[in-house]
Give the backbone structure.
Amino acid sequence: MTSLQITNSEGKPADVPYSGQVIFSHSGTLSVQAMDPDPAAKPTTYTANGY
C-alpha cells in the first residue's frame, strides 16, 4: 500500500499515517490490511487496536 486517505470534516482529502498491504488471491478476493503506527490511536468505525 502506498498511501491511505480519508475525507476530513472540511471535505478535503487527508493522509492517514497507516502502513499495510493489499492482497489479491488467486480466486479474485481482495483483502486490505492496515496498521496505525500510533499505539494510542483511538478506535474508529473501521479500526480496533490499531488495525
